[in-house]
Specification:
The chain has 133 residues and is of the alpha+beta class. It contains four helices and five strands, in the order H-E-E-H-E-H-E-E-H. The chain has helices spanning 2-11, 46-74, 91-101, 125-132; strands at 20-23, 32-36, 83-85, 105-107, 118-122. The strands form two sheets. A three-stranded antiparallel beta sheet has the order 3-5-4, with no helix packed on it. The longest helix is centred in the middle third of the chain and has 29 residues, at 46-74.
Length: 133
């Protein structure tokens, strides 16, 4: 996302500060919450402001969709350790990826939404990363 934002800012002649990375406290090992960049020079117009914001969002979606497609193409992990909890996904995502997931397995973990069983699908970690993205 930062690369797309910088490319859009450069095309309008806007200088940006280096990104300030925001760690995910207290669990730093989980990654980042995001990053913050400041404009060092003002944007010339509203179109430039929109382009910088929109390009970052579109870049995030493209990477997430690409990672999801790659995870679906690789298929489930051979060891069967990684499962995708299907019930917690948004409805539109359920509709889009359900034909590619295969046979569901019922786990014995209690569902936090008062359903007695979770429906899980064997998955690839790359697929889970793409869906979380």
């Amino acid at each position: 996302q930062e690369s797309a934002r910088r490319a859009a800012a450069g095309s309008y002649g806007v200088e940006l500060s280096p990104p300030f990375l925001l760690p995910a406290f207290p669990l730093v090992s989980t990654g980042l919450l995001g990053s913050v960049t400041r404009r060092l020079t003002p944007a010339p117009n509203k179109e430039a402001e929109f382009a910088m914001s929109f390009s970052a969002a579109v870049a995030g979606y493209i990477v997430s969709i690409g990672t999801t497609v790659a995870g679906l193409a690789l298929g489930p992990e051979k060891d069967g350790i990684v499962n995708l909890n299907y019930q917690l996904l948004p409805v539109i995502l359920k509709v889009l990826i359900r034909p590619f997931l295969g046979v569901a397995s019922v786990s014995d973990q209690a569902d936090p939404f008062a359903d007695p069983m979770n429906i899980a699908f064997p998955a690839n970690p790359i697929l889970v990363g793409g869906i979380c993205g």
